[in-house]
Specification:
This protein is mainly β and 537 residues long. It folds into 3 domains: 195 residues, Sandwich (Immunoglobulin-like), CATH 2.60.40; 195 residues, Cupredoxins -  blue copper proteins (Immunoglobulin-like), CATH 2.60.40; 126 residues, Immunoglobulin-like. The chain is 6% helix and 36% strand. The protein contains 4 helices and 34 strands. The strands form 8 sheets. It has a 6-stranded mixed β-sheet, with no helix packed on it. A 6-stranded mixed β-sheet has the order 25-24-27-32-29-30, with no helix packed on it.
Length: 537
């Protein structure tokens, strides 16, 4: 099934890659967010790495030779997959309203990339925007200089320019890609990336990728206007425009007081969620009343790959009349957990399987703490009308997945040993001044975390605010420690830290370079909640 939204005038995808190595330059929040440099970049094989930027403290930064050695040691399948990305402005039909967007190749979401573990991915990027852009490969532990953070790892692609990237894709799972430039993600620049595991048994009849988003352009304020309003006034706001698309209920379950059964201790069910009440919430680029549909037969098994590409919204996801068997978190396998609902924050991914009954069933994503119709896709195995878009499945109030439920498969476990170092990551700031910090500093003034190759470092994620913060580490996964309900140790690259909450995550330093660590709320990140993890010799 393809439920992506085509643009009215998609563009062809051609462009040779230019060649220019990244050069060291001072790092600033404005540079990282704005992508103020750029020309083409082509990265050759492990023996021909471009230069990269690192600013170590407490040691000498590792150099390109160390990165080249790590790349050379990766398992390779012997296969190369080539892909073209055209970054452009498009007019996109959401299933009624036509909106202005930035897209990959005229589609919302962009077309999925599909590769196998160990494949070399060769990407050609043509930027048809009037501003620089970049491509970050979210969740992939790839070589540092291909990570896609301007002026830290990879030059931006200038307006009208081209670039080339080539890297080994190491790990199977559900991933995605998006810019690390300004607020372009919130304009629609995102697409799924699936890395197949040749050893995975399969056992499902259909696969359904579901990409969730919160949407404002052309329906309300632009992302840049939203950020400016937050910085000017602080606190919660609405993105305005069509005022909920008409007919949207004023209160949805995400904003109801009290606690859902199975809620993580300290995790709010509305309070502390995102600050922007969006005009619309999308699944695969479609409004709830125009949802995409997967046609199947009763008794068939569907593998769901759920990606939250939203800028400011955490979702509770459930399927009417069914329970979900969660099998993967952020790409890594876990012992199957059968639940009614899954909470997914910005940047997270969950895979689940479901065996279909007879009828028409919405897979529904309720925006946490916000009004508006929930996003949804439909799974149809029989005749009958689809339920109203205003209907929320009873499963939303049922047993919800907990972090402690996630127990990694043996092959996915990180070492359970005493860490070589413990480092604080204190999430601070507030809505009054709308400055968000890590360890008391915004990114302009950050003091990077440091680690040495082969070390196990424990990051103590301490949220000292009343907001939710999904924390994402580039180039690595981590093992979540000390969570409630017994399990723990799940491999993740993005984790939701509750208000005034504390989570320990263990990171194995096996991918040298300089890497971003940040809140994946796009507005918190733009307002300073970023730092770096840097390898030192």
């Amino acid at each position: 099934m393809d439920t992506r939204t085509p643009a009215r005038h998609p563009e062809p995808t051609t462009a040779p890659a230019g060649r220019r190595a990244a050069t060291a330059a001072p790092v600033s929040r404005r540079a990282v967010l704005g992508g103020a440099i750029g020309a083409g970049l082509a990265l050759a094989g492990a023996g021909g790495l471009a230069g990269w930027v690192a600013f170590g403290r407490g040691g000498r930064p590792v150099g390109p030779g160390v990165i080249a050695a790590a790349e050379a040691a990766r398992h390779r399948s012997g296969r190369t997959v080539s892909a073209d990305l055209v970054v452009q402005r498009s007019q996109v039909d959401l299933g009624g309203p036509v909106v202005s967007a930035m897209t990959y190749g005229g589609l919302l979401p962009g077309a999925q990339l599909r590769v196998g573990a160990g494949d070399v991915l060769r990407v050609r990027i043509r930027n048809e925007l009037d501003q620089p852009t970049s491509v970050h490969w979210h969740g992939l532990a790839i070589r540092n200089d291909a990570d896609g953070v301007p002026e830290l790892t990879t030059p931006a692609v200038r307006a009208g320019g081209t670039a080339g990237l080539e890297f080994v894709v190491p790990d199977p799972g559900t991933y995605w890609f998006h810019p690390h430039t300004g607020l372009q993600l919130d304009w629609g620049l995102y697409a799924p990336l699936v890395v197949d595991d040749p050893h995975e048994p399969g056992g499902h009849d259909h696969e359904l990728i579901v990409v969730l988003d919160d949407w404002s352009p052309s329906l309300g304020a632009t992302p840049e206007q939203i950020l400016a309003d937050l910085q000017a006034g602080g606190g919660a706001m609405t993105s305005g425009g069509m005022g909920g698309m008409g007919g949207m209920p004023g209160s949805m379950p995400g904003s109801m007081p009290g606690s859902m059964p199975g809620a993580m201790p300290g995790m709010p069910d509305g309070g502390g969620a995102g600050q922007v009440d969006y005009p619309a919430y999308l699944a695969n680029g479609r409004l709830p009343a125009a949802a995409g549909t997967l046609a199947a037969r009763p008794g068939q098994r569907v593998r769901l790959r759920i990606i939250n590409a939203a800028a400011d919204t955490t979702f509770d996801v459930a399927m009417a009349g069914h329970r979900l068997s969660v099998t993967h978190s952020d790409g890594y396998p876990v012992g199957p957990v059968v639940v009614d609902a899954v909470r997914i924050s910005m940047g997270e991914r969950y895979d689940a399987t479901v065996t279909l009954a007879d009828g028409v069933f919405p897979l529904t994503a309720v925006p946490l703490g916000k009004s508006g119709r929930p996003a949804r896709v439909l799974l149809r195995t029989g005749a009958g009308a689809a339920p109203s878009p205003d209907i929320v499945p009873d499963q939303i109030w049922g047993r919800r997945l907990l972090l402690g439920d996630l127990v990694p498969d043996d092959a996915a476990r990180l070492p359970a040993r005493a860490p070589d170092s413990v480092q604080d990551v204190v999430l601070g700031g507030g809505m009054g001044s709308y400055v968000w910090t890590i360890n008391g500093r915004s990114y302009d003034d950050t003091r990077p975390l440091t680690v040495r190759q082969g070390q196990l470092t424990r990051l103590r994620l301490a949220n000292r605010t009343m907001m939710l913060h999904p924390v994402h580490l580039h180039g690595h996964t981590f093992a979540v420690r000390g969570v409630p309900a017994g399990g723990g140790g799940a491999r993740k690259d993005t984790v939701l830290v509750p208000p005034m909450g504390l989570l320990d995550v263990d990171v194995l330093a096996d991918n040298p370079g300089a890497w971003m660590l940040h809140c994946h709320n796009a507005f918190h990140m733009a307002a300073g909640m970023m730092t770096r993890l840097e390898y030192v010799a």
